[in-house]
Amino acid sequence: MKWFKRDWTEIRPNTMLGRVLRVPLHLLPKRKPMKILSGPCRGMKWTLESNLYSFWFGTFEFKKQAALSKYVHKGMTIYDIGANAGFYTLLFSKLVGNKGHVYSFEPFPENSARLLRHIGLNDLTNITVINAAIGAADKLGSFQIAANNFSGHLSSNNHGLLVVPTLSIDALIEKGYPSPDIIKMDIEGDEVLALEGARNTLLEGKAIWFIALHNDEARKVCDEALKKARYQMFLLDGTCLDDISGGIDEIYALPSDSMPRETEKNGMMPVQRSI
After folding, report:
1. In what order do the strands lie in the sheet with 208-212?
2. CB–CB of 79/170 below 8 Å?
3. What CA–CA distance (Å, rounded) separates 152 from 173?
4. CA 253/CA 80 separation, integer angstroms
């Protein structure tokens, strides 16, 4: 199974090896349910409509899967923000069990349809799908579809093809949604807006955050927001970070009361911050 221990889609399709590897994959049926081949989601049903074959291989963002699996436990409440076709939603559903719950946020209709299909194929009952983007406030927002037609982001110039509802994390919780134990966020550069709408949630310091960072502005805002809330930041391999810089694109952050345990595991003293 060593073949499946890397993400083979990292071999780009514009290379000779990438083209050769993809020839047999293009012959596979797009909507036929197939079992995920490896990883924590092994055996769960998936379709190839997204054309990202590492979902089916089970190797998609393998380091991130491993880091999430370390912290997601039975009975937890998870916010999967930017759920796409639902790969991480399936992972979370499996890990939290019947007593936990996953809230999956996905504004792009095609992705939502794939997400719902994967939930149905696996007979999962501990998931709620919310067809909305996470942003700074509750309102309507313009959504720009990416060139790959499988993702997108909120547009500040109102030139997006879609108009979608946007929700803030703080407002969701104020309206009665359960506070998350873990927030996984991968929203193509809209991290800045999402963090702006989660100031109270951050300052409460209860949730563990997994954040994909897509530009330097997002790194700067994320760094400032997490430090203000007395979080400690880590790379996916557990390396402790003093700041987010140098092109870092994936981090997780632990609340202050979790820092001593985590830093002890990594052979480091907890970072002390003034209030």
Report:
1. 127-130, 101-105, 77-81, 182-185, 208-212, 250-254, 232-234, 240-241
2. no
3. 25
4. 16
Condensed to tens digits (0 to 9), the pLDDT of residues 59-72 reads 899 999 999 999 99
Scan for tokens 């002390």, then name that residue: 272
Cα separation, 225 vs 196, in Å, equals 9
Report the C-alpha gap between 275 and 272 in whole angstroms.
10
**Side chain identity at residue 49, one-letter code:** E
Q: Mind giving me the DSSP string for 241-257?
A: ESS--TT--EEEEE-GG
DSSP state of 149: S
Tell me which of 122-126, 188-192, 209-213 is least confident: 188-192
Question: To the nearest 10°, the Cα dihedral for 193, 195, 197, 201?
Answer: 170
Enter the pTM of the model.
0.84
- Tell me the one-letter amino acid at 188: E
First to last CA, the chain: 49
- Tens of pLDDT, residues 91-111: 999 999 999 999 999 998 889
Burial status of residue 251 (CB atoms within 10 A of its CB: 0-12, 13-18, 19 or more): buried
Q: How far is CA 30 from the centre of its chain?
A: 23
Alpha helix stretches (DSSP H) within 144-274: 169-174, 191-196, 199-204, 216-228, 259-265
Q: CA 144 to CA 160: how far, in whole Å?
A: 4
